[in-house]
Amino acid sequence: MSATIKYLLDEEQMPRSWYNIQADLPEPLPPTLHPGTGEPIGPADLEPLFPMALIEQEVSTERYIDIPEPVRDIYRSWRPSPLYRARGLEARLDTPARIYYKYEGVSPAGSHKVNTSVPQAFYSKEAGIKRIATETGAGQWGSAMAYAGALFDLVIKVYMVKVSFNQKPYRRAMMETFGAECVASPSMDTEAGRAILAETPDTTGSLGIAISEAVEDAVGRDDTKYALGSVLNHVLLHQTIIGMESELQMEMADDYPDIIIGCTGGGSNFAGIAFPFIGKQLGGGSKVEVLAIEPRACPTLTRGEYAYDFGDTAHLTPLVKMHTLGSTFVPLGFHAGGLRYHGMAPLVSHLQELGLMKSRAYDQLECFEAAVLFARTEGIIPAPEASHAIKGGIDEALRCKQEGTSRSILINLSGHGHFDMQAYTDYFGGKLKDGIYDEKELAMALSGLPSVG
Amino acid sequence: MSATIKYLLDEEQMPRSWYNIQADLPEPLPPTLHPGTGEPIGPADLEPLFPMALIEQEVSTERYIDIPEPVRDIYRSWRPSPLYRARGLEARLDTPARIYYKYEGVSPAGSHKVNTSVPQAFYSKEAGIKRIATETGAGQWGSAMAYAGALFDLVIKVYMVKVSFNQKPYRRAMMETFGAECVASPSMDTEAGRAILAETPDTTGSLGIAISEAVEDAVGRDDTKYALGSVLNHVLLHQTIIGMESELQMEMADDYPDIIIGCTGGGSNFAGIAFPFIGKQLGGGSKVEVLAIEPRACPTLTRGEYAYDFGDTAHLTPLVKMHTLGSTFVPLGFHAGGLRYHGMAPLVSHLQELGLMKSRAYDQLECFEAAVLFARTEGIIPAPEASHAIKGGIDEALRCKQEGTSRSILINLSGHGHFDMQAYTDYFGGKLKDGIYDEKELAMALSGLPSVG
Fold first, then answer.
1. Does A165 contact chain B (CB < 8 Å)?
2. Nearest CA in chain A to B152
3. B165: in domain
4. Is any Cβ of chain A less than 8 angstroms from the Cβ of B250?
5. Strand partners for A158
6. A219 CB near a chain B CB, below 8 Å?
7. Closest CA to A316 of A390, A387, A228
């Protein structure tokens, strides 16, 4: 057998700042618009939702933003995270490719999400906020926010997309163990939730709906702000520690990635690993191929329109320009719940438009097949979301084999699948099906895009 | 908030040998006896069960035994494991005690068990064995063996105690993801299983029964050996890497434990952290207090007899001298399935008899309460087994507070609770009860101890 090789940094090598790609964009990001006026919004418009420190990060064009010392202190309980050379997988594939994966599943909540929940909790606490309302898809983000809330003594309320709430009761148990409250979305706790339940009582929910509920909750209470686990610039910023550590670890391996692969739901883990390398390229460094993998059942980057749209279903958020399937699009209840979002991070969308990255879609069955192969060769059971990135990496490695080339492939393994074992059980039991989306529903959702912008 | 401090070793500091406490015992371990003759058994008697390399380790009195390089290569994918100073927990308890915990949950299967499943798979592969039969209680050991089997290309069959099989379907899913076969025990696949099912069809099973099935399976097939996840000397030996790493990490922290605490089911994680320190003491080093924590529902060390007994229910194993509740004792189906064994490792039992360690029993509800406090302050959700050690550590820290003394407490956090969230859900839902055992049943089981020895 071929043993995996681990590259581990010293704590002192952990980055002291996050990397902000907005400093290096060849064209600036299209502005966020007010849905009523169609005019660019200012910081004051976001104040009901976020603490000012995060709003400043959202629009900053500083290249590096310091990580506060209390945040680094907490990061240190699991960071720097390991980067592995997948020798077992390479041997099984019999590929000349060099496959590396950065493993974010070592974190307390089991994914990269804590990289941003911790600073979000920190800045909220600093601003005197007592309570945070948020949503979660697969539950990774809700767990991460619950963990950060426990450490900073904040009350956390999580609106969890109903299909995942039912598929993953143990994610809810994790949130409760950390002291958070978790309800199925749509819920009866908000106007938005009640309206949707009245119209479609059997809905499986969606991230767009859950966002509406959390935003409404936060705006309605003085002691409460909102927190988002992906999509926004400041969230992607916090994730860049993944790529910055990976750069140092690839140096340890005396290698540099030819291709970087991440899965995309809202875009944050993908941005986290890719942006620092894209930034190096924009600054004149080595060129890297960057590949986002999404599910065919929710094909935002590969089938969506690049247009201004709402981030939520009830249209409570500002308008952002992004790849979108339409804010009323409800994706099928497939198992990678973290990839079920109708939109995509504006920064990721912008980079695809600029030709700085590509995207590809896979079905869920082929992703589970890849995940099982990975578990049996590398010993880690991936989250269904991350299995998309692994499938992408395996296909690239097989292409190397076919072409007889040895390329260096860097995959972001954004989380473990310990809370997704029902999905594996269903997969082994032959109960999982592929399913893409209803063409008609997609067309209808896209036809409803706002005309602003 | 007080951030946890992590002490992490370089890979080069990972121990190159295991520590064998048999080299330093003030009195040798009582011999293992043949149940028929009452005479000490020899290596040949164990050959149907284990590869010779492990039999040699079982009886060795060499102080250090080299860790084979291929085993170290695999260990490196998660080892050296971190040791933490529990600053968050200390602050919450407002204790002058210094609380440290060694965290074995970072391993691929989520517990310390892989420390021995990997070498057991390695030596089996070396000996030309194709298939391993084993049992598992909570599923930690079965998952660990499944993982090691995947890496060494061995067929793994796991007999899982029925109560845990039903409580923890996702442990089974994990084993299957790694490629192993897992059945509920008692099963219809063995004589022992069929006999017990005929007599008590509703039995929740026990480790003693599952061991009988796995031993019968292994003895009946030429290509198959048996593997055990605890109790035996060679298993405890493999776990000593935990304590050896901890010694180096306590040095990094410029501290030395006054008290070492581990939970005990079969005794292996406890031995892993404690034996190297007890060995130092026996060699003239600092004295350490050593405390084993067990569930009141299966109180082997605190209520069992120190006597010769069978390791399994069907009486297929040799006789070992240990603390035992009687091989026919079936503990209640409480949630710390890994602590439901009627016996105790002979080495641990022997050390207690020699006065080198103490033991204490707790109820499950107080252990879950401790686990939730730990999760909210340290960010890690402990396995129910490990929560016993945490409860012990918290009580010792509170004793320090009461006495106004600052002692150094080292806890072994043997695994995470990601596959035990039903137990947490039941705890939050008020569905868990304390329950000790049936005094009559215990008396009857003890009255049936074999008269040999």
1. no
2. A1
3. no
4. no
5. A134, A182
6. no
7. A228
Q: Token pair for residue B451?
A: 């008269």
In a domain, residue A228? The reply is no
pLDDT tens per residue across span A117-131: 999 999 999 999 999
Whether B198 has its CB under 8 Å from any CB of chain A: the answer is no
**Contact assignment for A150 to B375 by CB distance below 8 Å:** yes
Q: How many angstroms from the chain centroid is the CA of residue A82?
A: 19
The pLDDT tens digits of the residues spanning A63-83 come to: 999 999 999 999 999 999 999
Burial of B309 (0-12, 13-18, 19+ CB in 10 A): buried
What part of A 75-94 touches B (C-beta under 8 Å)?
A: 76-77, 84, 88
Would the CB atoms of A3 and B110 count as touching at under 8 Å? no
Tally of domains in chain B: 1
Query: In whole angstroms, what is the distance from residue A254 CA to residue A249 CA?
Result: 9
DSSP codes, B306-327: EEEEESSSSS-SPEEEEEES-T
Structural domain including B362 reads 78-110+234-432
Cα(B140)–Cα(B134) distance, rounded to whole angstroms? 12
- C-alpha B295/C-alpha B285 separation (Å) is 31
CB pair distance less than 8 Å for A152 and B76: no
What would the two tokens of residue A433 be? 């099906």
The residue to which tokens 């945040």 are assigned: A71
- Neighbouring residues of A439: CB distance < 8 A, sequence distance ≥ 6: none
Whether B201 shows a pLDDT value over 60: the answer reads yes
**In this structure, is residue A116 part of a structural domain?**
no
Interatomic CA distance for residues B341 and A189, integer angstroms: 47
Q: Which residues pair with B308 in a beta bridge?
A: B321
3-class SS of residue B80: coil
Please say whether the beta carbons of B264 and B359 come within 8 A: yes
DSSP B40: B
Give the E-state strand segments of B130-245 in sequence order.
131-136, 155-161, 181-185, 224-227
In a domain, A415, yes or no: yes
pLDDT of residue A1: 59
Q: ipTM of the predicted structure?
A: 0.94
Cβ proximity of A309 and A196 under 8 Å: no
Work out the minimum CA distance from A354 to partner chain B, whole angstroms. Answer: 38
- Return residues 18-47 of B near A (CB < 8 Å): none
> What CATH number does the domain containing A390 carry?
3.40.50.1100
- Which pLDDT tens digit goes with each residue over B104-144? 999 999 999 999 999 999 999 999 999 999 999 889 999 99
